[in-house]
């Protein structure tokens, strides 16, 4: 259950059903108890230090008031900055306010200056956030992380859209609270894990408030996890009586003049992720040899026979007419196909290619970064980033393919109901040239070893991110991590996961 994600609309439906069964105010009380428990964990040995809680006008503020009362009753000094709205609070928030007042929490009018605090709790806005934070709310959001202590957001960091992970607003001065931790209620939410979400939410803990499962609706998405591609991991164990032909061929199509690095990176990644044979079908005939991996075979792209081979098209492909002709040929083939980089840019402007793509029956994975996705959708990258989940869904539907929308919290979308996952591995060390080429090569390698488009995308993205995390753990990055260091780390992870998934 822990990797399920719910939209705000779904959370409201669950909340409605549960509240009708439990009675008014029970969920808020439970939220306040769960948050206080987490706050005490975070305080650890610093229980003598005061906790600052900011409470907004809605029920998120009610949660903060409940939390404050619970902390006070646990002997912690609680300072509450309560900012009521113009409208009267809900009945449960009014009760939480009365409870906080009776419990002896200290109400303050402004943030304390130079105070030593044990924890800051953000209960300004949750899923009821309706517009960009402004004025005092914006000022507060910017200051909550300046006390040198952890910041715990209740439900959602205030200012962040729980569905999309974008900071709400249109202009450059939009702001949201930057929390170190978030306790999110009822179910986990997509916006905590993609776009700006990872920066603002920190470590996410989910508390279902004890709501019985039958009140839950179907999840809207999932967090990518090993169990989502475990079926193919288990099948990847290698029998003894095999040969290189048993594990498929990958051919990287790209490498126009002056762009040799991209296909070589993709090819090395495909090799180390287990493809039996890897070719580079290069547009530039001068590209002939990789001294690091002489196992790679270089061929002329135009005369290459793609049949029976998995194709990764795009790395360093350029936009020359010859590249377009090749692309048409591979899209028209029945080879499993990964389209990346320049292949996606060509596709974006070419209705004939798009028509051919729509007719494909073989597994097809598209791996756009936000700008490539924007070109495919005919919008700006800002529009894509404003709702990454929706953009990936839209592309999956439009091209009838598996979509990997890259970036922090990569979104993997398949053209099926509920077929959206958000990846949790990876870090900004990946924000360096060539890492996307590595991802496309890994995806090709998994496809050619018989994985489905969906599991190949989920597995490749998960391992690619986990490899970057492992390298950072070893001090190799995030600053200065290079794409070329990823394939070796991915190989280790793939072998470990296959070992762990294999039941003997
Ligand atoms: N109900 C339940 O059973 C449970 C609910 N739970 C908790 O409740 C939270 C949802 O509560 P909620 O619906 O009251 O919304 P919330 O996020 O507090 O904000 C709405 C208020 O803010 C205002 N407002 C909005 N944007 C604004 C802005 N930019 N700037 C200024 N004002 C703005 C808006 O007023 P408006 O001005 O838009 O009329 C309204 O007053 C949820 O996240 C969870 O924490 C849990 O206890 C579990 C059980
Ligand atoms: N800040 C980040 N956090 C997590 N992953 C990232 C981040 N920045 C980039 N990545 C990942 O790195 C890869 C970059 O791919 P791409 O943009 O195509 O780069 P290139 O074309 O240079 O290879 C993608 O897999 C993307 O998800
Ligand atoms: K909040």
Automatic annotation (TrEMBL):
Residues 11-217 form the YjeF N-terminal domain. It catalyses: (6S)-NADPHX + ADP = AMP + phosphate + NADPH + H(+); (6R)-NADHX = (6S)-NADHX; (6S)-NADHX + ADP = AMP + phosphate + NADH + H(+); (6R)-NADPHX = (6S)-NADPHX. K(+) binds at residues 60, 122, 158. (6S)-NADPHX binds at residues 59-63, 126-132, 155, 262, 316, 369, 437. Belongs to the NnrD/CARKD family. Catalyzes the dehydration of the S-form of NAD(P)HX at the expense of ADP, which is converted to AMP. Together with NAD(P)HX epimerase, which catalyzes the epimerization of the S- and R-forms, the enzyme allows the repair of both epimers of NAD(P)HX, a damaged form of NAD(P)H that is a result of enzymatic or heat-dependent hydration. Bifunctional enzyme that catalyzes the epimerization of the S- and R-forms of NAD(P)HX and the dehydration of the S-form of NAD(P)HX at the expense of ADP, which is converted to AMP. This allows the repair of both epimers of NAD(P)HX, a damaged form of NAD(P)H that is a result of enzymatic or heat-dependent hydration. This is Bifunctional NAD(P)H-hydrate repair enzyme. It comes from Massilia solisilvae.
């Amino acid at each position: 259950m822990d990797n399920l994600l719910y939209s705000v609309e779904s959370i409201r439906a669950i909340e409605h059903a549960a509240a009708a069964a439990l009675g008014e105010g029970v969920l808020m009380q439970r939220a306040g108890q769960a948050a206080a428990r987490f706050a005490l964990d975070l305080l650890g040995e610093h229980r003598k230090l005061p906790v600052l809680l900011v409470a907004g006008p809605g029920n998120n503020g009610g949660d903060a008031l409940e939390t404050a009362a619970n902390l006070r009753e646990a002997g912690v000094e609680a300072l509450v900055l309560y900012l009521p709205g113009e409208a009267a609070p809900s009945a449960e928030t009014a009760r939480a306010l009365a409870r906080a007042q009776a419990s002896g929490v200290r109400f303050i009018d402004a943030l304390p200056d130079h105070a030593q605090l044990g924890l800051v709790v953000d209960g300004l806005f949750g899923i009821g956030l309706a517009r960009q934070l402004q004025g005092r709310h914006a000022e507060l959001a910017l200051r909550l992380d300046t006390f040198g202590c952890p910041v715990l957001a209740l439900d959602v960091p205030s200012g962040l859209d729980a569905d999309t992970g974008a900071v709400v607003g249109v202009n450059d001065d939009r702001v949201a609270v930057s929390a170190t931790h978030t306790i999110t209620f009822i179910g986990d939410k997509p916006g905590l894990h993609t776009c700006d979400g990872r920066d603002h939410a920190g470590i996410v803990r989910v508390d279902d408030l004890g709501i019985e499962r039958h009140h839950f609706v179907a999840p809207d998405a999932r967090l990518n996890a090993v169990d989502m591609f475990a079926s193919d991991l288990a099948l990847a164990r290698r029998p003894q009586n095999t040969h290189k032909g048993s594990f498929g061929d990958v051919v990287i199509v790209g490498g126009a003049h002056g762009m040799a690095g991209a296909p070589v990176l993709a090819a090395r990644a495909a090799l180390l992720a287990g493809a039996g044979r890897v070719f580079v079908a290069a547009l530039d005939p001068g590209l002939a040899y990789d001294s690091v991996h002489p196992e790679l075979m270089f061929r002329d792209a135009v005369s290459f026979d793609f049949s029976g081979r998995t194709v990764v098209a795009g790395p360093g492909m350029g936009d020359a007419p010859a590249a377009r002709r090749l692309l048409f040929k591979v899209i028209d083939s029945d080879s499993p196909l990964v389209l990346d980089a320049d292949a996606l840019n060509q596709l974006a402007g070419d209705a004939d290619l798009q028509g051919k793509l729509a007719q494909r029956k073989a597994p097809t994975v598209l791996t756009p970064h936000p700008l490539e996705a924007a070109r495919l959708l005919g919008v700006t990258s800002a529009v894509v980033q404003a709702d990454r989940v929706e953009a990936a869904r839209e592309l999956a539907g439009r091209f009838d393919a598996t979509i990997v929308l890259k970036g922090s919290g990569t979104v993997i979308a398949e053209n099926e109901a509920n077929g959206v996952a958000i990846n949790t591995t990876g870090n900004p060390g990946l924000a360096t040239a060539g890492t996307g080429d590595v991802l496309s090569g890994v995806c090709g390698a998994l496809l050619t070893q018989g994985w489905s488009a969906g599991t190949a995308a989920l597995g490749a993205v998960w391992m690619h991110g986990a490899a970057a995390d492992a390298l950072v753990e070893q001090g190799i990055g995030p600053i200065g991590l290079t794409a070329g260091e990823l394939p070796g780390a991915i190989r280790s992870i793939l072998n470990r996961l296959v070992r762990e998934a294999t039941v003997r």
